[in-house]
Amino acid sequence: MSSGHNPDGRGDMQHRTVAELMTRDVVKARRDLPFKEIVRLLTDNDVTAVPVVDDRDRPMGVVSEADLLRKSADQADPSGRVPVPHLEAWERAKAEGSRAEELMSAPAVCARPEWSVVEAARLMEAQHVKRLPVVDETDRLLGIVSRRDLLRIFLRRDDAIRDEITEDVLRRTMRLAPSEVTVEVRDGRVDLRGSVEFRSLIPVIERLCRSVDGVVSVAEHLAYRTDDAQRFPTTAT
């Protein structure tokens, strides 16, 4: 029998932060770095983009291979087979640029080191970017986090995922006895089996399990002893 539950709380659950996943030794470009030096910087360091920083090491924008390729795309094709693409005014200005601050995509979309993976991923998706410079409270560059960095949480070991769900989700947050729900994890896929006191607990448990770092999917096979779904009937409108 459970001794109470906390459906909205997070208990002691911990999530990987941007600070834990970001690259700290950042390859960066000064605002006045010439085009060819940017190409060399990307090539020598085997990266596809770098943040552009000002004199106080604050990100101004990001210059990527895509930004640099606009210069090539703006050139006429000697063979005449491919027409010169139409470029918006801002695209043409970048294509004609010769320094980092003229070529970069700006302003820089940045993350904070204390953010969770979810917060960083949502910002990337909303802003359609592949990486985020990470800054401190004074906007100085601390690191950079990429999509690949965020995906590293899915390499987490199954036993670590199972332990977090068992201890943090079920025992500490939901206050469930170990005998009520068993947890199996394989390749990040979580399987929950057992019985809980109230029906309303089941979607809460599932939601909390899905939020655990490294979880790919959750399948629940949970029974309940009390159907509390009708305790607060919905009023028809």
TrEMBL record:
UniProt source species: Streptomyces capitiformicae
Pfam family, one: CBS
Listed name of the protein: BON domain-containing protein
Keywords: CBS domain
Lineage: Bacteria, Bacillati, Actinomycetota, Actinomycetes, Kitasatosporales
PROSITE patterns xref list: BON, CBS
Domain BON: 158-226
Domain of life, source organism: Bacteria
SMART domains: CBS
Keyword Thylakoid: no
SUPFAM superfamilies membership: CBS-domain pair (SSF54631)
Keyword Transferase: no
Domain CBS: 22-79, 104-160
